[in-house]
Amino acid sequence: MPGFFFGLPTMATTDQMFARADDFRQRRTEGADSLTLLHGMAWLNAAYSPGGEQLDILTADPTATEWLRGSKRGLLANLAVGTIDQALLAVLRGRHNVLRMLGLTGKVVIIDEVHAYDSYMQGVLKMLLEWLGALRVPVILMSATLPVMVGRRLAAAYLTGAGCPEPAVPDAVYPGWVYASPQRSLPMSVESRQRTLMVETRAVPLGTDRRPERGDVLREILSPLLEGRGCAAVICNTVAEAQLTYLQLRRWAREAGGNAPVISLLHSRFPAHAREEITREAIARYGKAAHGGRRAAILVATQVIEQSLDLDFDIVISDLAPIALLLQRAGRCQRHLGNDGRRPAWASTMRLVVLSPGDRPSELVIPPGWPYVYPKALLRRTHRVLGELRDGRIAIPGDVQRLVDEVYDESFGEEGNPLTDDDLDRLADEQTKDLYAQMAAIPSPDRVRDLGELSKGEIVDEHATRLGADGGKIVCCQVTPEGHLLLDGEPLPRPVGKNVRFTKEQVKHILRNTIPVPASWLRGVARGDTPPEWADNPHLKDLLLLRMAGEELSGFLGDRRLWLSPELGLSEHPPN
Q1: CB hemisphere CA count around 326 (13 angstroms)
Q2: Taking the alpha carbons of 542, 543, 546, 547 in that order, is the dihedral positive or negative?
Q3: For a Cys staple, 143 with which of 66, 114, 273, 431, CB 3.0–4.6 Å?
Q4: Which pTM was predicted?
């Protein structure tokens, strides 16, 4: 095979994989070895953009290098790392979908973290797999926490495209895998490190704002770090709760003084350049090579650290989440065997502490903001499964597949598995998303007689790979007393030249300060403060400018007051 495409769920995980792929390229490939990074902000990556100091990604003809960086051409490189969206666009009713399919043909297509995709993305992925099966493109799907039924459906889609109308697909059970081809399908097993994960569920009461009050429980659990050694991850389900938790732990650490742990915060609502820097610092502090002989430290984060980041903590504390994601988070606990001899005495076992909202561990009261992140049905089922663990133990890998399948079980209504209102809501949501995927995707390969059929109907845009990928990005600018706008301490770039256009460096400076925000924050918000010339630039046209002033930078997005600080990022409360 001339190359590969490696697809991942987020831009952050894609950037991390790009560095690994480049290392592989330099050590293992021969001949032409063009490598491209494919996502909407790839050209901001210093390791990839022309002139970047970290990597020289192409040793081939520089003309080809520049050409491959052009719009829609990146998949034509023989090696490509990108978000899964870049591959899904090949089977959506959009422009250049055939060019994207051509870029995938002849490669090995590897899709990582398959469990991370919702029913809509899995629906589009099934159509992609049908086409790749018809084109005889080898595909590797990877996940440690994929429900058996989902894996079976994805494999069946590929085999259907390859000409197997009624494929018999064996179950892919972790830590094994399945080889599937038109000729035969075989289950395989692999050797895996045997470990015991100790799981403890701790009740956390809800405050007057109906958010979990984690402070007392966290201080108790994390008290061993006051001795000056060890590291911990605290993972919250929402950005706002991560920010509040960080403030509580920072206050605790300051009061403790002495050997108190370093507290840091990582979530999606930092300016792009700040998030990149915080991620690099987290990898340097908690990565494979950094463990042992360092000051005690705690990383407060959201879901951004549960996928494809190679982090190693002595203990992981997490909000209740669906079991597949809890197990992914637990995978950041005592991850590397080589670090075990350097861990503090209090970290003698692999330990996951799950924070469950309610007055007792057996009681679950789901906070109002959590159903926007995870289905209530999966939270309740996970809570029940954790309560049934024998001695709070999970054998890894032995118990992983059983627990995942029990939570994601689709045999509703049978004895021992009653159908609840939350289950009905989840089923309806999944069926609706799958229907939308069918409407957005091109016909299956056996129904296409003319390539014109691939662009018939409503043409979708590049955002259609993720249903409900609503939300937007804002740029926070400081207003000086004289009325000037500063962006990251520098004057806000203005277009130059006789054609009144932004330079590439100006656009890069603006984009490196973008912050993603929920769609609900943008409803009814006027674009009055946004420079009108942004509307003429394809990279800036969808951004909103937010004016901020005062010693504690704050401003109003519609009726919502927001603050921006280096420690908290963008928040709905002051940084104190």
Answers
A1: 31
A2: negative
A3: 114
A4: 0.89
Give the alpha-carbon dihedral of 187, 191, 195, 201, to 10 degrees. -20
Cis peptide before 397 (omega within 30 of 0): yes
Residues 6+ apart with CB under 8 A from 70: none
User: CA-CA distance, 244 to 117, in Å (whole number)?
Assistant: 28
- Beta carbons of 395 and 350 less than 8 angstroms apart: no
Q: What number of CA atoms fall less than 13 Å from residue 66's CA on the CB side? A: 5
End-to-end CA distance of the chain: 56
3-class SS string, 423-448: HHHHHHHHHHHHHHHHHHECCCHHHC
Rounded Cα distance between 404 and 115, Å, is 11
Quick: pLDDT tens for 49-90.
Answer: 654 333 333 443 333 366 676 667 888 888 999 999 999 999
Cβ atoms within 10 Å of 155's Cβ, excluding its own: 23
Closest residue by Cα to residue 117 from 89, 146, 92, 97: 146
Check residue 64 and give its pLDDT.
Answer: 36
Determine the distance from the C-alpha atom of residue 222 to the mean position of all C-alpha atoms in its chain, rounded to a whole number: 27
pLDDT at position 63 = 32
Tokens of residue 373, six digits: 């992140």
SS3 of the chain: helix, strand, coil, percent, to 5: 40, 20, 40
Which tokens in the block code for residue 85? 């969206």
Quote the distance between the C-alpha of residue 216 and its chain's center: 29
Asked if residue 90 lies in contact with residue 128, where contact means CB atoms within 8 angstroms, the answer is: yes
Torsion over CA: 395, 399, 404, 407 (sign): negative
Q: Which residue has the higher pLDDT, 21 or 294?
A: 21
Is the pLDDT reported for residue 202 higher than 50? yes
Q: What are phi and psi of 491, to 5 degrees?
A: -55, 140
With cut-offs at 50, 70 and 90, classify the pLDDT of residue 240: very high
Cα–Cα distance for residue pair 429/438, rounded to 1 Å: 14
The closest alpha carbon to 93, from 492, 548, 462, belongs to 462
Query: Coil, strand, or helix at residue 38?
Result: strand
- Measured in whole angstroms, the distance separating CA 190 from the mean position of its chain's CA atoms is 27
Confidence at residue 50, expressed as pLDDT on a 0 to 100 scale: 55
